[in-house]
Design a protein that fits this description.
By secondary structure, the protein is α/β, with parallel strands linked by helices. Helices cover about 45% and strands about 15% of the residues. It is built from eight helices and eight strands. The longest helix is centred in the middle third of the chain and has 23 residues, at about 100-120. The two termini are about 20 Å apart.
Length: about 250
């Protein structure tokens, strides 16, 4: 996929991996719709993007991925502003084992909502121009995580959901690729959930994190750009780790 001129909607795009991906897309000449629950952070992020890349390249829409109404509105506003949607990145995530229902609502239901809307807006056989849906799983979607079983379950589910759409009988007619990214620990606010009583045995989680290593947002974002640019990789599952870099599963 040639990214110049393309339009991407990114959930959880105001910080962390979402912000990094938006920045990388802008550098490639794409336009971005940053959606996020946090309006202050979202507006600040888009101001940064505008100062660096010029007017009309990025917009912010406040959106809670647990709300179908707000998701519907975000997609509609994105298309109304930019005329099309080519890429959907379902990135918004939470790592809270105690508020486990909210974790499921964001990590899984939010991804499902975003994917189904992405299909609706992108599919060629229904008037779209095709494109890609890229869903954020985790290395926790590939292996058990004893100190975060709910988070782990959601990420396994995202992986199975996305791979299933990649094999859907209508995939070729839709012209939509379905991609999954499975990073290990990344320097984002999410890794600090070990500090706030949000998971079991946070001491063991921190030890495992230090042993595994923490990747930069830029590395993850640049890897995602390469994934998007390769039109042959429908169904690809990209694993990212500090030790091994990029692997495909």
């Amino acid at each position: 996929m040639q990214l110049t001129g393309k339009v991407a909607l990114v959930t959880g795009g105001a910080q962390g991996i979402g912000k990094g991906l938006c920045e990388a897309l802008l550098k490639k000449g794409a336009k971005v719709c940053v959606t996020d629950l946090n309006p202050e952070q979202g507006e600040t992020t888009v101001k940064e993007f505008t100062s660096q890349h010029g007017d009309g390249k990025a917009i912010f829409i406040q959106c809670d991925v647990t709300s179908q109404e707000q998701m519907d509105s975000a997609f509609s506003k994105c298309k109304e502003t930019f005329g099309n949607i080519d890429i959907v990145c379902n990135n918004a995530g939470l790592g809270h084992e105690i508020k486990w229902e909210l974790t499921v609502d964001i990590n899984l239901k939010g991804v499902i909502r975003g994917t189904l809307l992405g299909i609706q807006y992108l599919r060629k056989d229904k008037g779209g121009k095709g494109g890609a849906v890229i869903n954020m799983s985790s290395s926790a979607g590939l292996t058990p995580v004893p100190f975060a079983p709910v988070y782990c379950a959601t990420k396994h589910a995202v992986l199975g959901f996305t791979k299933s759409w990649a094999l859907h009988p209508d995939q070729e007619a839709m012209g939509v690729r379905f991609l999954t990214v499975c990073p290990s620990f990344v320097e984002t606010p999410l890794i600090h959930c070990t500090d706030h009583g949000e998971m079991y045995h946070p001491d063991k989680a921190r030890q495992f994190m230090q042993k595994t290593g923490i990747m930069s947002v830029d590395f993850v974002a640049d890897s995602m750009i390469k994934l998007l640019e390769d039109d042959t990789n429908n169904g690809a599952v990209m694993k990212l780790t500090k030790a091994s870099g990029v692997e495909f599963k």
